[in-house]
Design a protein that fits this description.
Bound molecules: uridine-diphosphate-2(N-acetylglucosaminyl) butyric acid
Distance between the termini: 12 Å
CATH topology of the largest domain: Uridine Diphospho-n-acetylenolpyruvylglucosamine Reductase, domain 3
Structural class: alpha+beta
Mean pLDDT: 97
Largest sheet: 5 strands, antiparallel
Number of strands: 21
Helix content: 25-40%
Length: 326
């Protein structure tokens, strides 16, 4: 058994049977055969106890340009590259589009699995393809973006047939060679200095600052729950109880409601069970405030789901992956 606390951002004191850290694609098939769970930097997981063998892709590094045209560039990047470092590298190279996704924790591979999104942007429109090792087929596969079915905080890699069975090793992205800032998110719009709005580094730094104010530096896994997506009928039912709930129309005719609001107005800001706490500055985020155990964390998750359901009739679904013990 090895201590697992350093290998995930919630920093819970649990152990893992083994940790496999392949440094190259050649080492992936063997490591995959010996592991039960696959992670990146562990920034979106909650261990529920001592864990079986784990493969982390964090040591798969590097990138190469596949092709470049006047307007865009296609780049293949190894799944273990740190996402934020990658965003900065892209800006430095003059490859644009990822600026609003500044400072999101985790790896490039995990960014695809979760279809990361923030401040008016998401990964999906940049994805070209994904390469990885299919454990069941014992073969390398290249999947075009359409086959990955990216949606709000979703990809096919979350399905039981793919999860832990397909190890993403490389991701191909198409990025823009011209910078056109996305300022649709109100927080971003208010904070960007109009005289500097054509500077990609300024947008990057602005998003980084907004995040730093709302999200804790350590001891969290970002938003713990997804923002629920409701039908018009479901939204109306919710509005009859919560006329002020913030909601955003989706392109499919449904509505995304602010889970942070539902938790906040259920009176749970700062609520604590042992060392696990609802972060007071952003109640969608749960933090390990002081040596939380897996049991305390799980009890907090269940308490929030139950309270929100009883108060608002809405079921919150975790965005973070819960990892059952051996
Ligand atoms: N709100 C409250 N009380 C609070 C905080 C927020 O009522 O204390 C309400 C406000 O009405 C606010 C709304 O919640 O307008 C939304 O809050 P925020 O803008 O912070 O965004 P979010 O919906 O809570 C999502 C993503 C974040 C992403 C931000 C910014 C999900 C699950 N989360 O959070 O992503 O950074 O938008 O785009 O979609 C992550 O996934 O880990 C993550 C951090």
């Amino acid at each position: 058994m090895i201590p697992f606390r350093e290998y995930h951002t919630l920093g819970i004191s649990v152990s893992a049977q083994r940790l496999l850290l392949p440094h190259s694609e050649d080492e992936v098939p063997d490591a995959a055969a010996q592991s039960s769970y696959v992670i990146g930097e562990g920034s979106n997981i909650l261990p529920l106890g001592d864990l079986p063998s784990i493969l982390s892709t964090r040591n798969l590094r590097g990138y190469r340009v596949l092709r470049a045209s006047e307007n865009s560039v296609e780049v293949e990047v190894a799944a273990g590259e740190n996402w934020d470092r990658w965003v900065r590298l892209c800006i430095a190279q003059g490859w644009h589009g990822l600026e609003n996704l500044a400072a999101i924790p985790g790896t490039v591979g995990a960014a695809v699995v979760q279809n990361i999104g923030a401040y008016g942007a998401e990964l999906a429109p940049f994805l070209v393809s994904v390469r990885g090792w299919n454990k069941a087929l014992e073969a390398w596969q290249e999947l075009p973006a359409e086959a990955c079915e990216l949606n709000y905080r979703y990809s096919i890699f979350q399905q039981p047939e793919w999860r832990d069975k397909f190890i993403i090793t490389r991701v191909t992205l198409r990025l823009n060679r011209r910078f056109s800032p996305v300022l649709s998110y109100p927080d971003v719009m208010q904070r960007v200095n109009p005289t500097r709005q054509h500077d990609p580094w300024h947008l990057y730094e602005t998003v980084r600052m907004i995040r730093a104010e709302k999200l804790p530096a350590y001891g969290s896994a970002g938003s713990f729950f997804k923002n629920p997506i409701l039908s018009l009928e479901e939204l109306k039912a919710l509005q009859s109880r919560a006329p002020e709930v913030p909601f955003y129309a989706q392109s499919d005719g449904r509505f995304k409601v602010a889970a942070a609001w539902l938790i906040d107005k259920a009176g749970l800001k700062g609520y604590r069970i042992g060392g696990a706490q609802v972060y007071p500055r952003q109640p969608l985020v749960l933090v390990n405030a002081d040596g939380a155990t897996p049991e305390e964390f799980y009890a907090l998750v269940q308490h929030i789901q139950k309270s929100v359901y009883e108060r608002w009739g809405v079921q919150l679904e975790p965005e973070v992956r819960l990892l059952p013990p051996t």
